[in-house]
Structure formats: C-alpha cells, structure tokens
Design goal:
- InterPro entries: 2-5-oligoAdlate_synth_1_dom2/C (IPR018952), 2-5OAS_C_CS (IPR006117), 2-5OAS_N_CS (IPR043518), NT_2-5OAS_ClassI-CCAase (IPR006116), NT_sf (IPR043519), Polymerase_NTP_transf_dom (IPR002934).
- It is found in: Cytoplasm.
- Belongs to the 2-5A synthase family.
- The protein has two domains: about 5-160, Beta Polymerase, domain 2, CATH 3.30.460; about 200-350, Poly(a)-polymerase, middle domain.
- About 45% of the residues lie in helices and about 15% in strands.
- The protein has helices spanning about 1-5, 15-20, 25-45, 65, 90-115, 165-180, 190-200, 205-225, 230-245, 250-265, 280-290, 315-325; strands spanning about 55-60, 75-85, 120, 135-140, 145-155, 270, 300, 305-310.
- Strand 6 (about 270), helix 11 and strand 7 form a beta-alpha-beta unit.
- Helix 8 (about 205-225) packs antiparallel against helix 9 (about 230-245).
- The relative contact order is 0.14.
Length: about 350
C-alpha cells in the first residue's frame, strides 16, 4: 500500500485513513468478544489446577487494541496478567517463565473446548524464561487476525483509583532496575498508565497515530531492521500534537509533516512527560536528570521513567530519518496546486 499513501494528496489523507486504516467495525466487535472470553479464562480458570495456589488480581488489555489505535487488518493486544504471587519486580523476572508455561498449557486445552468464531494459534518460544506468551486470533469471516502477547506481571499499582502513582513506586522501580541492570524491563507493570495516556486522546489524534504507524510499517517492509521502536513514533506523534496544534480538529497533512520532520531531526529529541512521575521525589528526580542527559534521541516512556523508548539505536534512527526526508517530497505533503503543504505556526515544535 506504499503507492497508495505516497500518491495520496494532502487533502485526501483523512479519506485514506477512513478507507484503508480504520478497523472493520464487525471485526472489532468479534475481537472484543474473543478478548473477553480469554480474559475471563485467565482470571477464573487458567490457574485452577496449578500445583500452588495462584491468584490473578486483574487482567489489563494494552497494545493498540487497548489504546484505540489499531490498524485495519493489523491489530495487536497485550493481555497483562497481574498475579498476587509476584511480590517484587525481581520476582517477576525470575518466575514469569513458570507462569507462561502454565498459561500456554491451559490455553491449548481451552482452545479445544471453544466453539467461537476465531482460531487461536499459540506461538512457540525458544527462550527458557520468555517475557510473553504470543498467540494469534484469526477471524474466519473477515480474514483478519490479531496478535496477542500474554505477559505475567507484578501488581505494583494495585487497583488504579488514583491519577498519579505514589512516587515511592517509581523510586523502588528505579532502584531495582539499576541494581539488576534491567532498565525498561518492567514496563508491563505500568500497562494501565500507558493505555490511559493514549486512550483518552482526541479521535483525530488517534487517526494521525494510525497514519504514522502505517507509514512506519511501510518503512519496516522496505528497510528491515534496525529501526526505532514503533512505540517511539506513537509518542513522537503525541508530542508533536501537544507542542504543535493541541486542538481536537487539525490539518492531518500538517500533523503528518511535523512528525516526519521531527524524525529527520532525531538527534535533537529529548522528550518526557510528568503526568505520572515528576521531579518532586529526590531519588526519582536525580534519576530523571541522568536519563535526560543521555545522548539523544531520548523519549521516555510516560509511564516508566526507566524506559527510553528511543533507545541507543542511532543507526535505526538514521535510516528512518533518510526515508522520512524522501517522503517529505511525496504528493501526500503537496497542496492542490503542487506546492508543499505549509506548516501552520501552531504546528511548530520547539526542540529542547
């Protein structure tokens, strides 16, 4: 579909998103129902016959399905299973393999009992202590599929009936991550915050995120690895909108152009949010300052300060920046008269 997007005029981008990128409504309904069945299974049945009592405190849906940014025919969801048997971040690291194996075994058994409209295909893992159990849900009717990761996690947040976690939670996370050398490893514990950060955003911003994700997938198909994480591009799109337009209705081409220009200027990126953590706690503040002094690009996960989702991947960013520079000459950034789409002053981002 590269030719479809690259040849689409700026004025037609909204239509392109509507026709090619928004998921089929009936497929979404099917997937939602199937997810509920599997979530209920994980909460109520999965560990019923386990050797040691296992209690699931909650199952949280993340990924693009949870955030509301799924692409047509290409959806993913993280089902994070929070277990009361895990008492620390280190506990999660050491014991997740045993829980994943139990989930895999029970899910295969459960598949045989199901009389639903989807097929479950469990993926094999060669790692002795895998981070996730991967499987696919395929829709017979729509020939679309959703990729799932089931991830056991330590329930550090508990019942999320507050806006901002207590800073001690992040101080403990930082201490354990640095001592274990596993920064960013426990972002699954903060899935609810990651989901909430994007889920409440305006519909049109989610459409722009879909467009950027689609562009990223085209780049991935063409260039292969290494490339930056897709999540980094999602956050970069939010940043561009917050620092640029910030309104619910905006010009899609201007937003798209701004994101690609930020990719081109990747060496200047230093992006973070203070929605869930900030500089008030001394230990957290010291750590944040260290993170922000690292070589750019820096894009901190808004829910997990130990995760720099831009990563130390300068080669990947360079390759993506070169592709973005080429794309900025394409018709999707041209006005009706062939001139380049102007960037409204509202879309001018200040790079710190």
């Amino acid at each position: 579909m590269e030719q479809g997007l690259s040849r689409t005029r700026a004025r037609d981008l909204d239509k392109f998103i509507e026709v090619h990128l928004l998921p089929n409504t009936s497929f979404r309904t099917e997937v939602k129902a199937a997810i509920k069945i599997i979530c209920d299974f994980l909460k109520e049945r999965c560990f019923r016959g386990a050797t040691h009592p296992v209690r699931v405190s909650k199952v949280v849906k993340g990924g693009s399905s949870g955030k509301g940014t799924a692409l047509k025919g290409r959806s993913d969801a993280d089902l994070v299973v929070f277990l009361n048997n895990l008492h620390s971040f280190e506990d999660q690291l050491e014991r997740r393999g045993e829980f994943i194996e139990e989930i895999r075994k029970q899910l295969c058994n459960f598949q045989r009992e199901l009389h639903i409209w989807v097929k479950i295909e469990v993926q094999s893992s060669w790692w002795p202590n895998p981070r996730a159990l991967s499987f696919k849900l395929s829709s017979f009717q729509h020939q679309q599929e959703v990729e799932f990761d089931v991830l056991p996690a330590y329930d550090v947040l508990g019942q999320l009936n507050y806006i901002k976690p207590h800073p001690q939670i992040y101080a403990d996370l930082i201490r354990e991550c640095t001592s274990l050398g596993k920064e960013g490893e426990f972002s699954t514990c903060f899935t609810e915050l990651q989901r909430n950060f994007l889920k409440s955003r305006p519909t049109k911003l989610k459409s722009l995120i879909r467009l950027v994700k689609h562009w990223y997938q085209l780049c991935k198909e063409k260039l292969g690895k290494p490339l930056p994480q897709q999540y980094a591009l999602e956050l970069l799109t939010v940043y561009a909108w917050e620092r640029g337009s910030g309104v619910t209705e905006f010009n899609t081409a201007q937003g798209f152009r701004t994101v690609l220009e930020l990719v081109v200027e990747y060496r200047q990126l230093r992006i973070y949010w203070t929605e869930y953590y900030d500089f008030q706690h001394e230990d957290v503040s010291k750590y944040l300052l260290r993170q922000l002094r690292k070589d750019r690009p820096v894009i901190l996960d808004p829910a997990d300060p130990t995760g720099n989702v831009a990563g130390s991947n300068s080669v990947g960013w360079q390759r993506l920046a070169e592709e973005a520079l080429a794309w900025l000459q394409y018709p999707c950034f041209k006005s009706w008269d062939g001139s380049r789409v102007p960037v409204d002053e509202n879309w001018t981002c200040i790079l710190l």
